[in-house]
Design goal:
Layout lengths: L2 H5 L3 E4 L7 E4 L1 H4 L2 H17 L4 E5 L2 H13 L2 E5 L10 E7 L2 E7 L9 E9 L3 H12 L3 E10 L5 H7 L3 E7 L4
Parallel strand pairs: 3-4, 3-7, 7-8, 8-9
Antiparallel strand pairs: 1-2, 5-6
Helix pairs in contact: 3-4
């Protein structure tokens, strides 16, 4: 399947989660077996070219795509979680949201110093969460210089934010709007 064919499987939902936002809903892509498999194969190709030892998926939809890519490549998967979700001691990083703050955490034993980690999530918007994930993983000793996304919203400049932090950003598709 081509990227355009995969893109056609993503549903756009207007005014979600707030008025004026066009939400790229990947659940329609995930439920299409051939489309999802093609998406994972293309992401896996990019992750392999980046030299991934481990895929780090950001909660929640990053778990779906990231775990599938990791299994496809037969490499490890590290979940980047919201607070209080891991049953062991964690390391975390707080980061700013548009209207407040949030936190991401990992199990520090999941990262060996120098491990090449590729961050994977379904969507890059403003880049705040992905930047926080990169900071967290780097702080744990990982080499993080690639991040992959199914969708980029270029008007929100998140990819630019990541690039300015030394992270190569690749997305399978982009959509206009917020």
């Amino acid at each position: 399947m081509t990227r355009d064919e995969i893109k056609a499987l993503v549903r756009t939902v207007p005014d979600f989660p707030a008025k004026g936002i066009l939400f790229g809903d990947v659940t329609t892509l995930i439920r299409d077996g051939k489309g999802f498999a093609a998406c994972i194969a293309q992401l896996a190709h990019l992750a392999e070219a980046a030299g991934a030892d481990v895929i780090a998926g950001i909660e929640a939809r990053g778990f779906i795509f990231g775990a599938a890519v990791a299994a496809h490549l037969r490499v490890g998967f590290v979940p980047v979680r919201k607070p209080g979700k891991l049953p062991v001691r964690t390391v975390g990083v707080d980061y700013a949201l548009e209207y407040g703050r949030d936190r991401l955490e990992i199990d520090p034993s999941a990262i060996t110093k120098g491990t090449r980690v590729v961050i994977l999530d379904d969507l890059i918007a403003t880049g705040g969460t992905a930047l926080a994930a990169a900071e967290l993983l780097r702080g744990a000793g990982a080499c993080v210089d690639h991040a992959l996304f199914v969708i980029d919203l270029p008007e929100l400049h998140g990819a630019e934010q990541l690039r300015s932090a030394g992270v190569i950003v690749q997305a399978l598709m982009d959509f206009p709007g917020h």
